[in-house]
Amino acid sequence: MEIENLSVLEKASLLSGASEWDSRGIERADIPSFVMSDGPHGVRRQLGEGDHLGLGESKPATCFPTAATVANSWDPALAEDMGKALGREAHDLDVNVLLGPGMNIKRNPWCGRNFEYYSEDPQVAGRMASGLIKGIQSNGIAACPKHFAVNSQELRRQASNSVIDERTMREIYLTAFEIAVREAKPWTIMTAYNEINGVYAHENAHLLIDILRNEWGFDGMVVSDWGGSNSAVAAVKAGGTLEMPSPGFTSVRELVGAVNAGTLAEADLNARAAEVAKIAQLTKTTGVGRNDLLKDDVIADHHEVARRVAENASVLLKNEGGTLPLKPGTRVAVVGDMAKTPRFQGSGSSKVNATREENILDELTAIDGVTVAGYAQGYERQGGENRALIEDAVALAAREDTDVVVAVIGLDERSESEGLDRSTMAIPHVQIDLVKALKGAGKPIVVVLVAGSPVETDWVADVDAVLYIGLSGQAGASATARALTGAVNPSGHLAESWPIRYEDCPSAGWYPAIGRDAIYREGPFVGYRYYETAGVPVRFPFGYGLSYSTFVYADLVADEQGVSFTITNDSDVPGATVAQLYVRGPQGGTLRPDHELKGFVKVQLDAHETQTVRIDFDRYTFRHFETASNSWQTESGEWTLMIGTNAHDIALTTTHAVAGTVEPKPSNPALGAYLNGKVKEVTDAEMVVLFGHDVIAPGKPTTFGVNDPISAWEDSKGFVARTVAKTLKNQERKVREKTGQPDLNALFLLNMPPRAMSKMTQGMVDAAMVDGIVKISNGHTFRGLGTVISGFFRNQSANKKTAKELES
Question: What family does this belong to (predicted)?
């Protein structure tokens, strides 16, 4: 049946969820309901009605390495293999739409959700995401890249406004999505919670129509983040398709009313309804029953895929004197709580009920070639002082039958979670105390570092080797054991910069924004673009990674289509390296970072093998976004092409004449400190030049509205609202201190604005009731309660009427 033949009410009903994870279907029109599920690194198919925070029980599924770890492989083909496995499991667990990958740019290492995102660079994020999307969709499952767009902090995430200049947005924060949309053609995409320059992402026509649909050619379904829709009518006008999870029938009535009143074109309603119907048809052959579990052969095969991803993503950060790989016969003291009780994923909606679980202690014990001399816990998991644990570890390390100490340290479960940003880049100090104490034993120390995002590493001088495994998924322990013993040659490279200290980060002075406006004051100088331009030293640069092999780069040649060069494995050990193409624009041209990544390739080489390697140019290589003409342009002139092993260490350089679309235009001198990337010195006046308009963050609101988070109620004049906010904050703190895990429910509620209540309660709360709740937040408790109570009964009556109309 054609969409146009459905009633306005039926079409409107398709544009919001029926439950936490299900869309609405229309049986007579052969539009089945479809199931959505979290799945950036594993299918979280929840039982019963479920919840969107990962609190409820879910079916067992393979927990693959998180996106931050997968990105360290720099291997889109490997990401595609992982995507194929993810898509297969989604199929078998009767999931139609897999909500991933997460691909926001890592603006700041404190973001609590960085472990779910790929990189600080759009080339890496876009190409890795493309691989995963292709793999997922090869199974007839829709991938859903997220969170579109400019989503960089968890604090106030549902009530935050990302204020950013157009050029930075287009070149840094949208290019990764553009690459994924153009290369992998995802069937769906998820919008972010936040506003962008004052307009919610799910109703931002500039984002969803001008750019996503008209410029990039996206023709799929745009789904809101759970509770992230603001106005159903505004969303449909602006290209937003599906509200999730379920606002009941409130949005349906709003859409019907707008069409009848002439304020919403029925053509727009038709277009959005057709997008939902298309996904229903594309994915309708998924699965055979919602109670299905994965078969044993699938579990075994996918555990091996997870191991292979982890093996290719581990990053050797230090290896003094060839400490690694461990030599045959080495007697190893294994130290660290995380060696026995593994941490291999983050907290929040991406948390997977893993089909298997490994730990490093058992895997080292089982592996041939080394002997585990003993194990010591070494530290309290949650950071509590316990000198006895350190003393036991040092005693084990000092024993005559110990040759090498393997210490497993890193961030705990409280540090990296959806809904909560980090407050420090340091690992718990008791772990640092352990490392320093172990040095006194006089044995080589190998650190296995577990973390989904960068940490400060002042302690690195006290150890001989560091293997960074990230959050490596359920097979990460066996992958780690194989890397430590040389069965695997580490080939990962960092997909983000590791500053020496947090204060070195370009946005450290204004992150996270505690008010409504998150001002992207640093402009395009994110990650290595800042460190390399401003000359700020880092601990480990973007793209960095060591190997048990050594590589020699030579013979760089450029032509009109790209560059070629040779790489030789100048060692007796087969291995892989990541060749990275960086470009520098013409002298005297537009403002840009000193150099930017524009291509990469991972190259596997046998011992003493030489390969000729090629990296082609593409639409992204030389372009910049010109705000005056609202178009992409390329500057003519002499560009510098560089091949590096990371953003700082450049092995080969050549120049290349580019016939562009515009002549180089000197930057406006009024940009001041931006001209040399020193964004910490930028004045308000210089920021106005970059943005093209005044950028002033407002102070605290004197009254609260429907889009102010509940956490802001702590400053309310009303006792009830103030008590609610303080109680939630105290509850979250107590749970975190007691369990070592963040209280995701409390965090979600604190970040949530009242209008989200009408989007997430399956029709129990409507917009009129939200107005009553806002009255309570402003101290008008009894008036607000009256509005809520009377609105409840009106809403229930209206819901019954709408349901009956849809059934008839």
Answer: Belongs to the glycosyl hydrolase 3 family.
Whether 145 contacts 97, CB under 8 Å: no
Q: Is residue 539 part of a domain?
A: no
Residue 331 is predicted with a pLDDT of 97
Active-site pick, 75, 225, 403, 464: 225
pLDDT in tens, 175-227: 999 999 999 999 999 999 999 999 999 999 999 999 999 999 999 999 999 99
Please report, for the domain that includes residue 622, its CATH number. 2.60.40.10
Residue type present at position 126: G
Cβ atoms 394, 405 nearer than 8 A: no
Of 649, 664, 679, which residue constitutes the final position of a domain?
Answer: 664
Q: What is the DSSP letter of 440?
A: T
| Token output for 38 | 């979290």
Strand 517-519 and strand 465-468: the pairing is: unpaired
Q: Coil, helix or strand for 439?
A: helix
CATH number of the structural domain spanning residue 452: 3.40.50.1700
Q: Please answer whether residues 610 and 631 qualify as being in contact, where contact means their C-beta atoms are separated by less than 8 angstroms.
A: no
**Which residue has 């003519």 as its token pair?**
636
**245 upstream amide cis, omega within 30 of 0:** yes
Query: Contact, 71 vs 128, CB < 8 A?
Result: yes
Structure tokens at 182: 């153009």
Q: Is 204 contained in some domain?
A: yes
254 and 207, same structural domain? yes
Burial readout 73-88 (b: 16 or more C-beta within 10 A, e: otherwise): bbbbebbbbbbbbbbb
Looking up tokens 């080939």 gives 491
- For the chain, which ranges sit under pLDDT 70? 1, 48-56, 286-291, 696-701
Tell which residue, 404, 397, 400, has the closest CA to residue 329.
404
Query: pLDDT tens digits for 752-797?
Result: 888 888 888 888 898 888 899 999 988 898 899 999 999 999 989 9
Whether 215 contacts 175, CB under 8 Å: no
Rounded CA separation 82/789 (Å): 50
Number of domains in the chain: 4
Single-letter amino acid, residue 431:
Q
Residue 692 lies in a domain: no
H or E segment at 597? strand 596-605
Looking at the structure, do residues 199 and 54 belong to the same domain, yes or no? yes
Query: Cβ neighbours of residue 754 under 8 Å, at least 6 residues apart?
Result: 706, 707, 708, 710, 770, 773, 774, 777
Question: What letter represents residue 331's amino acid?
Answer: R
Whether 635 and 492 map to the same domain: the answer is: no
pTM of the model: 0.95
225 is catalytic: yes
User: How far is Cα 718 from Cα 728, in angstroms, rounded to an integer?
Assistant: 16
Query: What tens digit of pLDDT does each residue of 146-174 get?
Result: 999 999 999 888 889 999 999 999 999 99
Q: Is the dihedral of CA 680, 683, 688, 689 positive or negative?
A: negative
Angle, helices 296-313/476-485, rounded to nearest 10 degrees = 50
Last residue of a domain, one of 282, 316, 339: 282
Q: Encoding tokens for residue 551?
A: 């590589």
| CATH code: domain of residue 27 | 3.20.20.300
DSSP 453-499: S----GGGGG-SEEEE--S--TTHHHHHHHHHHTSS------SS-EE
